[in-house]
Amino acid sequence: QVQLVESGGGLVQPGESLTLSCAASGATVDYYGIAWFRQVPGKERERVGCISSPEGNTDYVDSVKGRFTISRDNAKKTVYLEMNSLKPEDTAVYYCAAPEIIAPFCWEELTEYKYWGQGTQVTVSS
Fold first, then answer.
1. Residue 7 · residue 120 · CB < 8 Å
2. For 21-80, how does the pLDDT look when each residue is reduced to its tens digit (9 = 90+)?
3. 28 against 19, higher pLDDT
4. Do residues 69 and 79 lie in contact, with contact meaning Cβ atoms separated by under 8 Å?
5. Strand-strand pairing, 120-124 and 10-12
6. How distant, in Å, are the alpha carbons of 29, 91, 121 from that of 40?
7. What is the DSSP string of the chain?
8. What is the CA 43 to chain-centroid distance, rounded?
């Protein structure tokens, strides 16, 4: 069983930065690739990016490449989403997620992710 808790959301102005944290617990959480998703009302949940384990390889959706960075601190069992140059279209509830099946890569499909945090709201507005 894996438990995930996000934190760090808030209201920022366009161009500013924000870092989200995903604190994980569970016996083998270090071996999970952790993904970040986001969702706005009325739209499907979008996969923002992911960090694999143990290599720490990352991938991102095109709309955030060069602006967002995912990292992990296995000693703290925490995954981070650093968001720079934020835009109003980044406004969403952000979730971190872990898959049901442990693999040395990141799963693409939302349906592969079984464990979810409660989400944290990010609002980018002037």
1. yes
2. 999 988 567 788 999 999 999 999 999 999 998 889 999 999 999 999 999 998 899 999
3. 19
4. no
5. parallel
6. 28, 7, 10
7. --EEEEE--EEE-TT--EEEEEEEESTTGGGS-EEEEEE-TTS--EEEEEE-SSS--EEE-GGGTTTEEEEEETTTTEEEEEE-S--GGG-EEEEEEEESS--SS---SGGGEEEE---EEEEE--
8. 17
